[in-house]
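Beta-glucosidase, Acetivibrio straminisolvens JCM 21531. C-alpha cells?
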Amino acid sequence: MTRDIKKIIKQMTLEEKAGLCSGLDAWRTKPVERLGIPSIMMTDGPMG
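C-alpha cells:
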C-alpha cells in the first residue's frame, strides 16, 4: 500500500504533529489512529 505523505500531513492537526515530535513516552511515538499512523517504539544503542 502506497501512502501520500504530504496528503496525510495536511490532514494532521497541529496537536497531532506536535505529538509525533514529543512522543508518547521516552521510547514510543504518539499514534494518530484516525489517520492510521501507529505508535513506533524506538531504542538507542550503547554507542549513541
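The mean pLDDT is 89.
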